[in-house]
């Protein structure tokens, strides 16, 4: 691939353009808002000047509601040899293209499973897709050359290709992406009118659950509008679990011993099933979550503290598998949770204590 055009210079489009440009591909940037394309160009994502002729690959990075129309226009104008979109739903745009009578041979649907709470070109990074799944949804009629271009794009972005059926993809993202977004927003919405004394008690758990609730509502309305059925199906299952959990909690309030016992069993069941589902979430290197030991270190909010603790941990010769930071409410301090193999935890804790760090159990 020597040339590409990115149509839509938001977070995903600009990030793909940055990755391609950094690896020597000449990228042309197009957006309905010329200022957005100019911003992406100023970041080094390519040029907002039009291409002189057909490019190798056109990457359409616009909201799902507009994906098919933009693709059809680009294909009609012959802007590229191959066409690919990065919309978060796949079945709808493909069916719209078919209804328009478009030739689907030079087109492949795709969806990089990467994003941020922030949107727009200024949020883009060339490494956004590194190590992340990038779904491809080719059809039996997809041109082999276009499939190769799509695979080259994914390789240049250092993502991991995953081939799926378009409708199977939409059901999958309803479960692992779209429903979690709604549930996160619902939990965060409980905080809007909560008493300030309750909000001040927020810890890492509520921060984890509500992190993605900071996402752009307009963007998510567009995504959910393109995949409402599968999301509603998943939410219906969650709603059934909620009803059963509410009934179990009411049972725990009862003076009737049998109802209390049934309530306990109901709560245990939902927590057990949660444990079983969590184990299936891919962890490091794609494996299931490992049972790491946490070494919690008290740090102050001063420049260089994190760099120093990582350097001291590195001197111990122990690999840090993961890290989290829990901030202390209202204080200029917090806990860095260093996650290591269980057998390494005592040695790391001892090494950090020797260097003056305060270890918390």
Named at the architecture level, the CATH assignment of the largest domain is 3-Layer(aba) Sandwich
**Low-pLDDT ranges:** none
- The share of residues in extended strands comes to 15-25%
Task: Specify the number of helices.
Answer: 13
CATH C-level category of the largest domain: Alpha Beta
**Describe the biggest sheet?**
7 strands, mixed
Q: Overall mean pLDDT score?
A: 91
Number of strands: 11
- How would you spell out the order of helices and strands? EHEHEHEHEEHEHHHHHHEHEEHE
Strand order of the largest sheet: 2-1-3-4-5-6-7
Radius of gyration from the alpha-carbon trace, in angstroms: 24 Å
Organism: Streptomyces castrisilvae
Pathway: Amino-acid biosynthesis; L-tyrosine biosynthesis; (4-hydroxyphenyl)pyruvate from prephenate (NAD(+) route): step 1/1
EC number: 1.3.1.12
Keywords: Amino-acid biosynthesis, Aromatic amino acid biosynthesis, NAD, Oxidoreductase, Tyrosine biosynthesis
């Amino acid at each position: 691939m020597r040339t590409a055009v990115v149509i839509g210079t938001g977070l995903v489009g600009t990030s793909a353009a940055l990755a391609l440009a950094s690896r020597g591909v000449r990228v042309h940037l197009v957006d309905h808002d010329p200022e957005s394309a100019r911003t992406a160009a100023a970041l080094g994502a390519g040029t907002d000047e039009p291409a002189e002729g057909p490019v190798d690959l056109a990457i359409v990075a616009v909201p799902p509601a507009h994906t098919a129309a933009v693709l059809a226009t680009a294909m009609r104008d012959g802007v590229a040899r191959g066409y690919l979109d990065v919309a978060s739903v796949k079945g709808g745009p493909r069916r719209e293209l078919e209804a328009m009578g478009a030739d689907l041979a030079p087109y492949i649907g795709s969806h990089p499973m990467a994003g941020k709470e922030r949107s727009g070109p200024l949020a883009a990074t060339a490494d956004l897709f590194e190590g992340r799944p990038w779904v491809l949804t080719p059809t039996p009629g997809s041109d082999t050359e276009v499939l190769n271009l799509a695979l080259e794009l994914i390789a240049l972005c250092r993502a991991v290709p995953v081939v799926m059926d378009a409708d199977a993809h939409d059901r999958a993202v309803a479960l692992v992406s779209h429903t979690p977004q709604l549930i996160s927003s619902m939990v965060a919405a409980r905080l809007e009118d909560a008493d300030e004394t309750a909000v001040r008690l927020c810890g890492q758990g509520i921060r984890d659950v509500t992190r993605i609730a900071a996402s752009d509502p307009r963007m998510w309305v567009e995504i959910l509008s393109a995949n409402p059925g599968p999301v509603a199906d998943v939410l219906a299952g969650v709603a059934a679990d909620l009803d059963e959990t509410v009934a179990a909690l009411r049972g725990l309030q009862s003076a009737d011993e049998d109802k209390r016992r049934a309530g306990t069993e109901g709560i245990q069941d939902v927590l057990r099933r949660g444990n079983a589902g969590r184990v299936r979430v891919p962890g490091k290197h794609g494996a299931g979550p490992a049972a790491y030991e946490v070494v919690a270190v008290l740090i102050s909010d001063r420049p260089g503290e994190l760099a120093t603790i990582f350097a001291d941990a590195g001197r111990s010769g122990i690999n840090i598998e993961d890290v989290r930071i829990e901030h202390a409410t209202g204080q200029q301090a917090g806990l860095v949770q260093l996650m290591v193999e269980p057998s390494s935890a005592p040695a790391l804790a001892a090494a950090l204590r020797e260097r003056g760090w305060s270890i918390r159990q």
